[in-house]
């Protein structure tokens, strides 16, 4: 499929993109009335300070291993909103997508359902794809299914939980300013002094990098 859309116009949005932008599905528009405890996986990618940011919540049924619910918030353009809305629709339709299939979703899958995006906006579908994987990995960590975690780049610091240096960096950006908070969030280095020291050093590194 031509990701530019049927017209070939580089800045024409497809009907599906327009529909999901003006009528976003599964959007959390007010956190005050939103019960995050109902969801067992959360994924965040990007940064509001420098561009698009996405946060996805998933509710996975441990009995069927399917995504039963998916909510999201996005800070970004029309393409970012439409991509995340479409992604959330895809994973819950027909009784919920299996976790294994959800992990294999690609940006191209989202683009096909949207009918294409302008080339400069394709990265928006990539962010949604990454946020979903992070949410599923978060579910694996919460349920201690560490062998199922799929590292998304970075250097693996903890071979048991498959925590990477990028995971620690993002945890610091999200407020983990000491090892207690870091372990509560990532369960890194528990019972392993060597891994604990590596995580502690990275914590200090990213604290100094971002907060001085």
What does this structure look like?
The chain has 212 residues and is an alpha+beta fold. The protein folds into two domains: 15-145, Sufe protein. Chain: A (Alpha-Beta Complex), CATH 3.90.1010.10; 156-211, BFD-like [2Fe-2S]-binding domain (Arc Repressor Mutant, subunit A). It has eight helices and five strands; from the N terminus they run H-E-E-E-H-H-H-H-E-E-H-H-H. Strands 1-2-3 form a three-stranded antiparallel beta sheet. A two-stranded antiparallel ribbon has the order 4-5. Mean pLDDT is 87; it is low at 1-10.
Task: Jot down its keywords.
disordered N terminus, alpha+beta, 212 residues, two-stranded antiparallel ribbon, Arc Repressor Mutant, subunit A, globular, Sufe protein. Chain: A, 2 domains, three-stranded antiparallel beta sheet
Quote the beta fraction.
Answer: 5-15%
End-to-end gap: 48 Å
Radius of gyration: 18 Å
Q: How many DSSP E strands? A: 5
What is the ordering of alpha helices and beta strands? Answer: HEEEHHHHEEHHH
CATH architecture of the largest domain: Alpha-Beta Complex
Number of domains: 2
Structural class: alpha+beta
The major pleated sheet works out as:
3 strands, antiparallel
Helix content: 40-55%
Shape: globular
Low-confidence stretches: 1-10
- Under CATH at level 1, the class of the largest domain stands as Alpha Beta
As laid out across the biggest beta sheet, the strand order is 1-2-3
CATH topology name of the largest domain, in short, is Sufe protein. Chain: A
The average pLDDT score comes to: 87
Number of DSSP helices?
8
């Amino acid at each position: 499929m031509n990701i530019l859309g049927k017209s070939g116009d580089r800045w024409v949005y497809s009907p599906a993109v327009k529909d999901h932008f003006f009528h976003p599905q599964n959007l959390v528009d007010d956190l005050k009335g939103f019960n995050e405890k109902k969801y067992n996986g959360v994924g965040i990618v990007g940064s509001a300070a420098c561009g698009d940011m996405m946060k996805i919540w998933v509710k996975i049924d441990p009995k069927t291993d399917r995504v039963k619910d998916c909510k999201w918030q996005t800070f970004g353009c029309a393409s970012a909103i439409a991509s995340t809305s479409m992604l959330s629709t895809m994973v819950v339709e027909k009784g919920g997508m299996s976790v294994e299939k959800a992990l294999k979703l690609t940006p191209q899958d989202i683009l096909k359902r949207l009918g294409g995006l302008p080339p400069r906006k394709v990265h928006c579908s990539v962010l949604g794809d990454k946020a979903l994987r992070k949410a599923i990995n978060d579910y694996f960590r919460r349920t201690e299914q560490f062998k199922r975690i799929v590292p998304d780049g970075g250097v693996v610091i903890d071979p048991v939980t498959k925590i990477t240096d990028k995971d620690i960096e993002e945890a610091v950006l999200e407020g983990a300013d000491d090892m207690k908070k870091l372990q509560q969030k990532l369960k890194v280095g528990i019972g392993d002094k060597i891994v604990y020291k590596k995580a502690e050093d990275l914590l200090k590194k990213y604290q100094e990098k971002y907060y001085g």
